[in-house]
Amino acid sequence: AQSVAQPEDQVNVAEGNPLTVKCTYSVSGNPYLFWYVQYPNRGLQFLLKYITGDNLVKGSYGFEAEFNKSQTSFHLKKPSALVSDSALYFCAASYSGAGSYQLTFGKGTKLSVIP
Amino acid sequence: NAGVTQTPKFQVLKTGQSMTLQCAQDMNHNSMYWYRQDPGMGLRLIYYSASEGTTDKGEVPNGYNVSRLNKREFSLRLESAAPSQTSVYFCASSGDPDLGYEQYFGPGTRLTVT
Q1: What pLDDT sits at residue B2?
Q2: What is the 3-state secondary structure (H, E, C) of chain B?
Q3: What CA–CA distance (Å, rounded) separates A87 from A90?
Q4: Taking CB atoms and an 8 Å limit, are B100 and A108 in contact across chains?
Q5: Tell me, what's the pLDDT at B39?
């Protein structure tokens, strides 16, 4: 069975500092990896994805993530955090073929950016 | 272009009552999904529909039924609601996920079962 782990329930970072939100995964076959953000009382918004190719992927709002196959990780990063980045972040994984329909989510990491 | 819409936004049910959550998308996507979100548990897939006319169970299908009415609409029905079904329900749609297309989510329905 596939699984996604986000080891930190909460991450606090000062405005202007770099931020990292961690994610590790376990899937069968070639992984498809996603990051989503959720603001209070809203649906999830897509940030970025890794399907194949370059291990460093860039997404919306200045976010990027690095796919590391040997460590089965897909950490979300941003060079300089903004207060408006404060939200709940979800990592999600599926895999190519029949598993591509079944997206498994991590439990989420609450990011707080302190002014 | 509204994306994914859901109705209602809020609903309170008594145990044993039934209701249908409605979802529609205007992005011409073949695939649609229903999830529930519970505190500290992320999102869990209830059912999905790979294309019009097909539906399949996800991780937590018990107590739910779905109907893919047409390409645009995918409904979720609770036949006899239970307090354990108190949750926030999200509908999503996507292009072919095997090509790596991401899912787009609706705003959610907050359901309370008393």
Answers
A1: 82
A2: CCCEEEECCEEEECCCCCEEEEEEECCCCCEEEEEEECCCCCEEEEEEECCCCCCEECCCCCCCEEEECCCCEEEEEECCCCHHHCEEEEEEEECCHHHCCCEEECCCEEEEEC
A3: 10
A4: no
A5: 86
Chain B environment of A96 (Cβ under 8 Å): 98
Closest alpha carbon within chain B to A91: B42
A10 close to B (CB below 8 A):
no
The set of residues, in sequence order, having a beta carbon less than 8 Å from that of B99 and lying 6+ positions away, is: none
The pLDDT tens digits of the residues spanning B41-90 come to 889 999 999 999 999 999 999 999 999 989 999 999 999 999 999 999 99
Residue B82 bridge partners (DSSP): none
- Whether the CB-CB separation of B89 and B76 falls below 8 Å is answered with yes
Distance CA A27, CA A9 (A): 22
**Which residue, among B103, B109, B110, would best test binding to A if mutated, counting the most A CBs under 10 Å from its CB?**
B103
* DSSP-assigned beta bridge partners for residue A27: none
